[in-house]
Design the sequence.
């Protein structure tokens, strides 16, 4: 996947999205539950002004359950409906219908007062590359009827998927460009594999990931790699931990020396596959009074 964004790409994506947004009632924004902010493009707030908003915390199967619920509460605090989804397995997909109805309550009420009956809610999916937009659309529309085809005059060239009596979904998602403005965001996108690995120093990336995991997810590291993270009451450095992983997993060069590059790739791959456990890379600061419901929807 190519995630090199240039001003030309951005302008084109923005223009297309602005056109599409005019046609819809509700914006369904997908984010990666492991990095709910770094996987957004905040410009969507401006672009989606006046529309109902939903955030789907997708890939929640890979993220820390407790933290995902905190993030859900955080989005709700911002006035955005949020729900948890695993587009790959279909978990949480059914609930999206409910959330759409809630998010569009005002529109439905407005229509009712004007005597407009059965006008479907129009929705579109947006998100940066690789957050799971296509997977979500496939999963969401699996049981849906056939595409409604072009609607002359109104939606020339657009395909709508009729999901049920009350919802239509634009079949092509809006692509938002990732924001690399600060180093931390770039790193987080790289951790989850959204930046081409060829342009990154993998060893450096693995060391940065290890340093985060050593702070927040020590238990996961110990369980997965059967390694020490402390010696003589002193915490080990990321490099010392990577060395142990290289040893344990026999990442060796021809002469028998440790192959740190191989160990780095192994760590990153296993993290991205969820093999190190359910891990969230961004922490949320929620207001104390916010009630975190102990459920997934
Ligand atoms: P995009 O349209 O936003 O660019 O994303 P796309 O649907 O292509 O999904 C990107 C990758 O994320 C795919 O993996 C997809 O299977 C995976 N994915 C999407 N939703 C989820 C989810 O909820 N949980 C998990 N664990 N993975 C998800 P891939 O490696 O490109 O393909 P494959 O592994 O499915 O073959």
Sequence:
């Amino acid at each position: 996947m190519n995630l090199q964004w240039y001003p030309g790409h951005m302008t084109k994506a923005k223009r297309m999205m602005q056109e599409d947004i005019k046609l819809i009632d509700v914006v369904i924004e997908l984010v990666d539950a492991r990095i709910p902010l770094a996987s957004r493009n905040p410009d969507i707030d401006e672009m989606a002004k006046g529309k109902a908003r939903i955030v789907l915390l997708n890939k929640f199967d890979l993220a820390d359950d407790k933290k995902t619920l905190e993030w859900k509460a955080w989005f709700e605090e911002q006035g955005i409906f949020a729900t948890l989804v695993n587009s790959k397995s279909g978990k949480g997909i059914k609930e999206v219908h409910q959330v759409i109805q809630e998010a569009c309550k005002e529109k439905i009420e407005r229509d009712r007062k004007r005597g407009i009956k059965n006008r479907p809610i129009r929705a579109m999916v947006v998100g940066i590359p690789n957050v799971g937009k296509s997977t979500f659309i496939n999963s969401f529309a699996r049981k849906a009827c056939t595409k409604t085809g072009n609607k002359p005059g109104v939606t020339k060239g657009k395909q709508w998927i009729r999901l049920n009596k009350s919802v239509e979904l634009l079949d092509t998602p809006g692509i938002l460009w990732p924001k690399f403005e600060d180093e931390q965001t770039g790193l987080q996108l790289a951790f989850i594999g959204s930046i081409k690995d060829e342009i990154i120093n993998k060893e450096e990336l693995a060391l940065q990931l290890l340093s985060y995991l050593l702070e927040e997810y020590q238990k996961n590291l110990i369980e997965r790699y059967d390694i020490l993270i402390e010696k003589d009451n002193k915490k080990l450095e990321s490099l010392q931990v990577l060395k142990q992983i290289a040893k344990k997993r026999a990442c060796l060069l021809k002469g028998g020396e440790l192959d740190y590059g191989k160990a780095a790739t192994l760590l990153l791959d296993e993290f991205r596959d969820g093999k190190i456990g359910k891990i969230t890379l961004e922490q949320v600061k929620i207001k104390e009074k916010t009630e975190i419901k102990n459920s997934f929807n």
User: Anything to note?
Assistant: Residues 222 and 228 are 7 Å apart (CA to CA).
